[in-house]
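Problem 12. The chain below contains 408 residues. Write out its predicted structure in token notation.
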Amino acid sequence: MTEQTFVETLRAHGARVFLVGGYVRDALRGVPASDKDYVVSGITETAFQALFPDTPHVGHAFPVYLVNIDGTACEVAFARKERKQGTGYRGFAVEFSPDVTIEDDLYRRDTTMNAMARELPDGTLYDLYGGQEDVAQHRVRAVSAHFLEDPVRALRAARQAALFDYTITDETLAYMRACRAELVHEPAERMFGELSRALTAARPSAFFRWLHAADLLDVTFPEIAALIGKTQPVVFHPEGDAFEHTMLVVDRVAAETDDVLARFCGLAHDIGKGVTPEEMLPHHYGHEVQGLDVLAAWDARMRLPRAWRQAAAFVIRQHMRAARLTKYGKIAALLMAIRKSPLTFASFNAVTRADHGALPSYLVYGEVWASELATISGRDAPEGVKGKEIAAWIHTQQAARLRELMKQ
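Solution.
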């Protein structure tokens, strides 16, 4: 059905229909708008179901339906109020009824840029909290003190600032700081959700810097917070401590690739430096080994996706040596290992280039060369070469072939 038909059907039965959230915000930002989300008011859930009987119900605590509008499955939620009665994001009593207005619904939202609505069909803008002005001024601002009721809104505000390159107002930063105690108890999957979205920003570092500014980095991403103050040899790292280096690397990776997996690897490549003993500074001997333990602890706390965990572990092990190998056998082994890792050569190279500043030829041409090395098979081994000897023979042949390719 078309949007016009959807709206006319509801309005004919006394309901009101609004576009809300990101679609309204992005239109004001002058960028391609995200998926459309709708809010309806002035109608019972029973009456809505009678009008759209084949529409899937996806809400749990409150009614949300997936309605096919203009060929796209769009979320249609009922206007609702929320009242805090416990801790965390589950500690809300939700009220929805025909008497709940769009004004009630917008009040419960996190930041002003997301607390706007356009009524259909005429497009009248409902902006009760100055969201349009905040978008124009490029700032993230909480709607009200109810921001504190869901502590993950603090991460969401930092993520919004990173995604849109906005600043966060002082009052909102104060609200974010006040979320610290409750954030410790929030489900790990909610933290991960904000992390994965923040890594899509043009400069992901802003997400972590805003969390640090709000005194929240150590309770949300302690592996990254631990890098602050871990000094490095100035001759190699004029940018500053291990935190500054990591922020530089993740932004460089983001400038080169949209691959969130590569961006996470850039974020995680030096996390072992966070546990370097003070007496060893500014050196970080063995941080690539320590980093694997830190990654394991991060995974235990946040349950990282398997590909993220495997790719980050691979980069942590290899990042110090990947651009500095000189022996053909070791180079061949690295190329074959990259080929088997969750990362593409382009992604691995993006992280390596961001860390080292340049790439050796064996990584520049690595994907092509690795494909050729992969054609060397144990089936071609001389008669009498068996068992473990076959693997050694393959490795020797790959090293010899790589030497030819590199000389060419």
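Discussion. The two ends are 61 Å apart (CA to CA). Students who got a different answer should revisit the alignment rule from Section 12.3.
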